[in-house]
Amino acid sequence: MGEFTIELNENDKLNDTNYLDWVSRMEGILTLKNYYGLVTNTKTPEEVAENDKLEPRRRHKAAALLKINCIVRLGNKFYSDSKKDPAVFWKLAQQFYQHKSIQNQTLYLNKIFSTHLIDENIKETMSFILENTLHL
User: Fold this and answer.
1) 41 class by beta-carbon count within 10 Å (0-12 exposed, 13-18 middle, 19+ buried)
2) Radius of gyration of the chain (CA)
3) DSSP string, 87-121
4) pLDDT (tens digit per residue) in 56-95
């Protein structure tokens, strides 16, 4: 069985060009750690309070989790600006990159259109195309 880590590889951490990839990966990590509802404000205040009782430092842990999965410059900026609130951190990242979504989508379209189909690697190529299509 593969080992799961909550820290992304250096190339996968949030930078100026990979927001859509990062969001997908972070949604999975946050869901696994039961922080997704806290970060996205999709849980009721009662559910949040109940989870806070079970894990008292979860807000701090969620904010730290977001910070370590960004390049240093962005992690420090969003962490500081959010006053260590993971929901505010998530919203700041979203707002910062929202206008860049079209640019990000163009990046994925370019990846798809520049893919060369090679008979020996057809399965790998199709997986690559599927992965990039899911981000659109």
Assistant:
1) middle
2) 17
3) HHHHHHHHHHHHTTHHHHHHHHHHHHHTPPP-GGG
4) 899 999 999 999 999 999 999 999 999 999 999 999 999 8
Q: Which range has the top average pLDDT, 82-86, 100-104, 110-114?
A: 82-86
How big is the chain, counted in residues? 136
39 neighbors 31 (Cβ within 8 angstroms) = no
Q: What is 61-72 written as a DSSP string?
A: HHHHHHHHTB-H
The pTM for the full model equals 0.69
Identify the bridge partners of residue 70 per DSSP, sorted by sequence position: 14
Reading the block at residue 126, the tokens are 């199709």
DSSP code of residue 42 = -
CA nearest to 63, candidates 41, 83, 48: 83
For residue 115, the tally of other CB atoms under 10 A from its CB is: 13
